[in-house]
């Protein structure tokens, strides 16, 4: 067994021998238990060394007799390893970017399709439920939060003022939430409760600016709330009135209570 034959173990494991040298080494391997044992021990690391080619092995063999070449080879090997590690980092970063992009697209598609995952957690403040309307052609289109109580839509045929009232019976009396539109200004207004026994009560007053509410100048409607101690079944109707300089009221729109 020659020294060269023994040194062929690594080259054979890496598959860098030519066909003739490979056959020669296999003949040697059949009678040399030392090389067979060494070859078996190298199997786990062959994958780690798979990127070393025949030129690298030849260069390593030459370094045994040439110290200068040894230094150059070591520098080259270190550079090779650094570049390999750098390529691995770039590949990992690219994979993260691609995965992040795919994830963003998936979540975007889920959000667009209305099936975005809901995340449970503590919330603060009141939950607002939009008022989608009743479908009544006379409904002026009240927006905002869902209101409590029976909904009544009225448009006065004379003044053109529109009103949407939400009437809710309470232990204290009646709660009223209302919205007014097509109400020009400037003027002073009030909300009056007219009871079944013909008695009246003013429960809210306000002023209308120059542009009015629900008009061409100001499309925004006026939304207010009020309450009365009168029970709803004791109320005949609610009336929005314009108040003149002497305090007299002129009806703008009347809303039945029942």
Describe this structure in words.
This protein is an alpha+beta fold and 258 residues long. Among the domains are: 3-62, Arc Repressor Mutant, subunit A, CATH 1.10.10; 150-256, Immunoglobulin-like. It contains five helices and eight strands; from the N terminus they run H-H-H-H-H-E-E-E-E-E-E-E-E. The strands form two sheets. Strands 1-2-3-6 form a four-stranded antiparallel sheet, with no helix packed on it. Strands 5-4-7-8 form a four-stranded antiparallel sheet, with no helix packed on it. Helix 1 packs parallel to helix 3. The longest helix is centred in the middle third of the chain and has 46 residues, at 67-112. The chain starts with a helix and ends with a strand.
What are the SSEs and their pairings?
Layout: H1 3-14, H2 19-29, H3 33-46, H4 54-62, H5 67-112, E1 150-155, E2 162-170, E3 173-181, E4 187-195, E5 200-208, E6 222-228, E7 235-243, E8 249-256
Antiparallel strand pairs: 1-2, 2-3, 3-6, 4-5, 4-7, 7-8
Helix pairs in contact: 1-3
Protein name: RNA polymerase subunit sigma
Transmembrane segments: 89-110
Biased composition (Gly residues): 135-146
Reported for the largest beta sheet, the result is: 4 strands, antiparallel
Low-confidence runs of at least 5 consecutive residues: 92-100, 119-135, 140-144
What structural class should be given to the helix and strand makeup? alpha+beta
- Overall 3D geometry? rod-shaped
- Share of residues in helices: 25-40%
What's the CATH topology label of the domain at 150-256?
Answer: Immunoglobulin-like
Can you tell me the CATH architecture of the domain at 150-256? Sandwich
Please, how many helices?
5
- SSE order: HHHHHEEEEEEEE
**The level-1 CATH class of the domain at 150-256:** Mainly Beta
Strand content: 25-35%
Total beta strands: 8
Major sheet strand order: 1-2-3-6
Cα gyration radius (Å): 45 Å
Distance between the termini: 116 Å
Mean pLDDT metric: 74
